[in-house]
Amino acid sequence: MSSSTESFNQISPSEFFYRNRDLAGFSNPTRSLYTAVREFVENALDACDQAGILPDVYLSIKAVDDEQADPKPYILTVKDNGPGIDSKHIPLAFGTVLYGSKFGLKQARGMFGLGATMAILYGQITTNKPVVVKSSPDGQSQDEYELLLDIQKNKPIIVKHNTKEVSKRGLSVSICLEGDYSKAGAKIRDYVYQTSLITPYATITFEDPKGEKFHQTKIVKTMPLPPTIIKPHPHGIDVETIRRMMADSHFQIPTVDNKMIEKVRKELGLKKNNLNYSEIMEKASKRWPGLSRHVRVVIAVMSFLKMDFEKLSKIRIDDMDIANKILAYWDFGESKSVSIDLDPESEYYKQLTNTVQGETLISFLTKRFQRIGQATAVKFTAFANLKPEKRIGTMTNQELVKLSDSLQKFEDFLSPDPSCLAPLGEEPLKKGMEQFFKPDFLEVVQRGASAYSGFPFIVEMGIAYGGEIKSVGQTVYRFANRIPLLYDEGSDVVLKVVNEIDWTRYKVKNDAPLVIVSHICSTRIPYKTVGKENVADRPEIERELRLALQFLARKLATFMSKRGHAEMEKKRANLYSKYIPLVAQFCTELAGKKKEPDYKKMLKMEAMVEE
Amino acid sequence: MKNKSKKISKTSEERRESLARLLQEQGLKIYSELDRGEFPKFSVPSRSVSNIVYDKKLRQYILGNTASIRSARNMSQLRSFAQLIWLAFFANRLVQEKKSSTLRDIYYSSQAFSIDFEDQPESDNIIVDLEAVLARPREDLHIFPEERSSVFGDLTIEYTVPGYEGKRTNLSDHPDGYLIGPSLSSAELVDTSAELVIAIEKGGLFTRFVEEKIDKKFKAIIVDTAGQAPRATRYLLKRLHNEMGLPVVILTDGDVYGEHIAMVIKSGSANAAHLRELTVPDAKWIGVWATDIEKYKLPTIPMTESDIKRIYDLQKDPRYQEGIWKKELEVFLKIKRKAELEAFSKYGLTNITDKYLPEKLEIAKSL
User: Mind listing the pLDDT tens digit for each residue in B13-68?
Assistant: First the structure.
């Protein structure tokens, strides 16, 4: 294989993100400071969630030079009590921009890694200071790294590394970056406040550059169950995703070099002895179930070549034409190209077919998707008019589009498995809101799981009224996957639903002091814009939000009418004690009497009615 | 000269006494209800459109039998119940002390008794409620509106208001006429040489009539209604007709509103359907008729859309279904033009008094 153009076109992921940092939210000092805070805080919370640790997150932003005017360098530190990161992984995790293919789905605040590394990258670009990472997974020894990124090579440069003894587990990341706290401050404070509201099981501390401290001790001591990673639902899939899933299952013929031969020998337990061809094949068939895929393929190739390791090391496999059942190789010893026929009856032929052409459609569907069993898969292939035994590696572009379209249209799939979701839960939400708003009335609801386009979601909502809420009209706090959505709320689906409700039907005045907390959990939140601040109005989501709000509004209406009744009784009593004596006075003179009628017993009667 | 003072005095006194009795009855009823521990209530005749019917015998609009109960038990009615009993109480004091009050006075007086009216329309409304409960006009309760009209002519009256009791005045003594106010309304009508009452819509023409000595030439008492006749004016017209036996003729602008001014004097308004003492069923409208406009070649102005709409509205009224009332409406609708009383000035300032009035009075005899 010769490819001299390779280094020419490729840029490293770091380089790519450096050039496109606007996309990741690092366009200016104000936005960058806010985004960096979010990325680190969300990583810290995610890490604790996954490890089942009640989070204790400390955030601090300190100006390098207090006197300097904004924008200026700040030191941003986020410390958590999470599981930390193994020392050997730290340089790669914080010193490279990672990208990979993930098909497993679960709910998380952020996609791991990317945003945090972007923040580190941004810090390095603006201040040329290394990131300081301190990690202690065991709570005994702590590794401290100072890292820089080599942007062109996408490699970490370890500036400093030492280990010392500590008494606390957790991870601390500290970067120096250019920011504008005078502009970003309000946004960051809102973010921290709202994050505490939706994470009542976390203790969150924030020290800002002006020395002001926000501290919220955890309100509940139970964590939501962690989400499980699950396979995608067929409705939530497009052609490109199928292509990538196939590439993942697709398998290249391995290069049979000395390294590979060594691997085969190792797996077969032949490190010391040198066996001939048939002995190798016999050994392989015994150990078959435990062999790795690469090794199985090499064995299969060997079965057709009928070669031992000695001979195998002297050839190069050029082509494997499964359709014509021909295997071609270059023999270094003889310096010529040889092709042999493949026996389709052979067990090993099947192995090669699987490898080169991929799985059958049925196997692809049942293994790689949720909610598809054997029966459903068969039914589906009939629906899609595709052959069940078709190898996915041999599917044409048109067939792939057909497959993708049919997966969307087929209606017999069960709705998505919500076990990958981790809603907060009614009790924690209620306790959090109680603590934050100290209202007269509070009610929360968690709707059952639902799905839009193959992505499961759950809506949680809470409503609080009166008490210490002083706002005029309603305040809506929007959350998605436990992240506060702070801005761009105008076009958000939650706001749409809230605004469309007719409060007078629920005995609530438009200027009533009302707080609504809405939390949407999903493996994929349908954001409207790149900014990820507003949720699009998918009908399924809109419906769930509306049902949740209506449920809560009905509860509020009951409360309001009880309260209204009590107020009415009070008003009634006041009215009677004011007017009845007057009426008595007037009619006494009108009737020409001297003594007023005995009306006092009537007022007493009124009082009794009231009770 | 006819002397009717003795008989009149009795009427006026009787009215006062029966009103006092009526008020006391209401007071006693509420007093005993309260004393029994019951929630007191008033029965207030409904003044909604559906309860206003035309009585052919009385020749006026009256209230039907629908009445609503205003009870102190009902929280939303308690306040207006208290307002109503207060007003009865306050009117009783006015009547006993022979003092008069205006609609605006009532609004302010209430505040001295912890009775709160939100605004004057609210107190005005309660006054009408009390009128309906008692079936007596507010003037009987010594409550008068601000609007005033005038009267001139040979009529001797005797005041009954405190400080003037027994004092007599002749209403031809002052050329601007006398205001028809509380003291004139409560005065006894003693004597007159007049044989006719001319009610005229406009103050300007009223002055002209005085200058031209119409009172002497036609032996008339001239009344300025100043547009739609106030209740006190209608009450005076009724008394002049009933107590002094004088026929009443009405002269208005030649338009649909003028025609209706005459009709209200004759048979009342829907607004006052709860009262039966303000009409002069025998009163005659003598002009300006629609047919006069052509006959006397009067300068005219075109009708507005609201004039025409008003004609259509009145055509549905049962009182406009016959005689000149019906005919003149039809002619107005046909010519779609109107003429004011002043239009006669085209033919000289005295044309209306010298020519038109005598001719119309002659015609009136046959109406």
Answer: 777 888 889 999 999 999 999 888 888 988 898 888 788 888 888 888 888 888 88
Contact B74, B80 (CB under 8 A): no
Using a CB-CB cut-off of 8 Å, the residues of chain A touching B42 are none
Using a 10 angstrom Cβ sphere, with 0-12 exposed, 13-18 middle and 19 or more buried, the burial of residue B283 is: buried
For residue A261, the SS3 value is helix
- What is the DSSP-derived secondary structure letter of residue A291? -
**CB of A523 closer than 8 Å to CB of A106:** yes
Of the residues B54, B61, B107, B108, only one is catalytic, namely B108
What dotted CATH number matches A234-248+359-409?
1.10.8.50
To which H or E segment does residue B286 belong?
strand B284-287
| Tokens matching residue A379 | 């039914």
pLDDT for A252 equals 61
What residue ranges do the domains of chain A occupy?
Answer: 13-216, 234-248+359-409, 251-357, 418-560
Q: Which residue, B144, B160, B187, sits at the end of a domain?
A: B144
Neighbours of A530 (CB within 10 A): 10
Nearest to B355, CA basis, from B298, B312, B317: B298
Mark whether B257 is an active-site residue: no
Residue B163 and residue B305 in one domain: yes
Rg of chain B, C-alpha, whole Å: 22
Tell me which of A590, A598, A601, A603 to substitute to probe the interface with B (most B C-beta atoms closer than 10 Å).
A590
Q: Which of A575, A576, A591 sits opposite B27 (nearest CB)?
A: A591
Residues ≥6 apart with Cβ < 8 Å to A254? A260, A294, A297, A298
> From B83, which residue of chain A is nearest by alpha-carbon distance?
A583
Q: How many domains does chain B have?
A: 2
Do B202 and B296 fall into the same domain? yes
CA distances, A402 to each of A187, A247, A356, A406 (Å): 46, 18, 22, 6
Is the predicted pLDDT of residue A237 greater than 90, yes or no? no
Phi-psi region of B198 (alpha: psi -120 to 50; beta: other; left: phi over 0): beta
Q: Which residue of A has its CA nearest to B21?
A: A591
Residue A79: CA count within 13 A, CB half-sphere? 13
Per the omega criterion (within 30 degrees of 0), is the bond before B288 cis? Answer: yes
- Crossing angle between the packed helical segments B5-35 and B231-244, to the nearest 10 degrees: 130
d(CA B202, CA A20): 89
How many other CB atoms are there within 10 angstroms of residue B83's CB atom? Answer: 24
Range of the domain at B178: 150-364
Name A2's Cβ contacts closer than 8 Å, sequence gap at least 6: none
Q: CA-CA distance, A582 to A580, in Å (whole number)?
A: 5
CATH of A13-216, one of 3.40.1390.20, 2.40.37.10, 3.30.565.10, 3.30.530.20: 3.30.565.10
**What does each C-alpha distance from B177 to A133, A154, A466 come to in angstroms?**
107, 110, 68
Chain A contact for B49, CB < 8 A?
Answer: no
* Spatial distance between the Cα atoms of B14 and A609, rounded to a whole number of angstroms: 47
Residue with tokens 């009445």: B67
**pTM (2 decimals)?**
0.55
For A48-61, the pLDDT digits (tens) are 988 889 999 999 99
Which residues, other chains included, contact B193 with Cβ-Cβ below 8 Å and sequence gap of 6+? B1, B154, B219
- Give the side-chain half-sphere CA count within 13 A for B157: 24
pLDDT digits (tens, 9 = 90+) for B117-157: 888 889 888 999 999 998 888 888 888 877 778 999 999 99
What tokens were used for B87?
A: 């007003």
Give the integer Cα–Cα distance in Å for A542 and B246. 82
Spell out the CATH class of A418-560: alpha beta
Pick the last residue of a domain from B101, B118, B144: B144
